[in-house]
Structure formats: structure tokens, C-alpha cells
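Question: Hello, beginner here. Any chance you could explain the protein record under this note? Any guidance would be welcome.
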Amino acid sequence: MRHVVRIDTEPLQAAIGWLRRGDAVPVEAGLGAAWQARAAGWRDDPAVDSACCLSTSSLLGGSPIEAMLDRLETLGRLTQDRLATARLVLVEALANAVLHGNLEDRAPRDGTAQHHARGVGLCARRDGEAMAFSIVQEGPGLAGLAARLSAAGSRGDTADPLEPGGLGLFLIARLSARWAVDEDGRRLTIWL
């Protein structure tokens, strides 16, 4: 039986440990009640194999993706080929959530606590023969970028490589079985 565990100290490292064990859905203690509720929903879903909720600040220090993929490999959910693809698309998706979602704002990126306290959730669940990976974030969302990518059918329309132009979503679209962004752009789901 899995449970939700609140992690206070070294949240990224603690989450990685819990993800590898697979018996809990770790949630960083500084995140609000909505993240606790999301984690409880993931915990109660029998199709969910792995999930966690961390702050943007913690994710700027590293990624729990390898621990999640290790768990899925142990469970036999992903082949070696799908593991490599999952690694690439999840790194891109997590970077989009943190950099273009939670840190993106109309105000300058000044590193204020407001941006760094925003949460990001990662969830891997079985969907028939596929694995569905959801990345949820609290920032303004990616809906506009996803619409531009769908309309252009390519990398996007920005010439500056440091500006968001859709390269990450382009890779996700090309390498996944399918993908979707919810209406407000705060949840990206990728099927592999």
C-alpha cells in the first residue's frame, strides 16, 4: 500500500529515494494543500506506478526522472528503447514546466521566492499498452506554445535559440505516440 509522504529536508534527494522504493508519493512540505490532494489522487489510482510533487526551487537543483524511470524499468513497464525515448521527452517536458511554465511570467525573472515556490508534479501511469507521463505546473502554462507548434508543425517561429520556440515540444511530438496539453496549458501528458 502506497502512501503520501511529506518531505522537509533535502526534498529532491528524499523524493528520489521514495521514487526508487516505489511505496510512496513524495510531496515537498512547502507545497500547498492542492498538491497534497493531487498526490493522494495519484496514490489512489491503481494505474499509477510512480509520482512526485516538488517545488521549482528543488527541481533547479536536479531531476527525479532517472529514479522514476528506474522504478518503471524494475516493474517491466518500459523496454530499453522506450526508456531512452522517455528519458529525452521527460527531460524536455520538465525543463518546459520549470523554465517556460513556473519561471515564466510577465515580470522579469528575478529569482524571487514567488517563482521558486511553485510546484511541479510528475506522474507515470499505465494506459493500456502505453505509459502516460503527466507533468503538471503552476505557472502561466504552455497552451499558447502548444497551439503555435501544432499550427506550424515544426520547431516554431523564433530565431533566437534562447527564446521559447517549441523545440522541446517538437521533440516530444516527434518521439511520443501522442501528447496533449490541457486547456489552461498547465498539464502536459505524453504517451509512450
